[in-house]
Amino acid sequence: MTANGETADTTERLLYEDGQLRVFLRARCEVPALALRGEIDITNSWALAQTLAAARESGTHIVVDTSELTFIDLSGLRVLAMPMLDPAERWIRLRNLTPFQRRLLSLLGWC
Predict the structure, then answer these.
(1) Distance between CA atoms of 35 and 62, rounded to whole angstroms?
(2) How many other CB atoms are there within 10 angstroms of residue 56's CB atom?
(3) Per-10-residue mean pLDDT for the chain, 111 residues long?
(4) Is the separation of the CB atoms in 73 and 41 below 8 Å?
(5) How far apart are CA 105 and CA 1, in angstroms?
(6) pTM > 0.70: yes or no
(7) Alpha helical stretches, state H, 1-111
(8) Looking at residue 30, what is its pLDDT?
């Protein structure tokens, strides 16, 4: 990655940062996605929800890459998994889940 956040096939733009979490809009080829880096907990899960909603285009879904998260609590999982919505209405698509994240979602029945 270069100093301006670009690699050969990826451009990233910082959308949110709070000292624990950084959210990047990642444009790769034709598939934009959000990349999460750091930790999500009760102190920043609401801000994450607002950032995701602001990045979403009306009627579309958002791909969220969680591979660089080092910690996520239940409040963060609720934001990303949207368990209150019918599966067909969930507009967040998770990618690159870690085995730990998959296990938590499975234990909660949110897969």
Answers:
(1) 11
(2) 14
(3) 49 94 82 89 97 85 94 96 91 94 91 75
(4) yes
(5) 31
(6) yes
(7) 45-55, 74-81, 99-108
(8) 56
What does the pLDDT read at residue 31?
Answer: 57
What are 56's two structure tokens? Answer: 């979403």
* Close Cβ partners of 88 (under 8 Å, ≥ 6 residues apart): none
Q: Retrieve residue 18's tokens.
A: 């709070």
> 3-class DSSP state for residue 84?
coil
Torsion from C-alpha of 69, 70, 71, 72, nearest 10 degrees: 10
Give the span between the Cα atoms of 7 and 42, in whole angstroms. 32
Which two tokens mark 24? 């990047």
Tokens 């285009």 belong to residue: 57
CA distances from residue 6 to 17, 32, 51, 67, 102 in whole angstroms, order as listed: 18, 14, 21, 18, 29
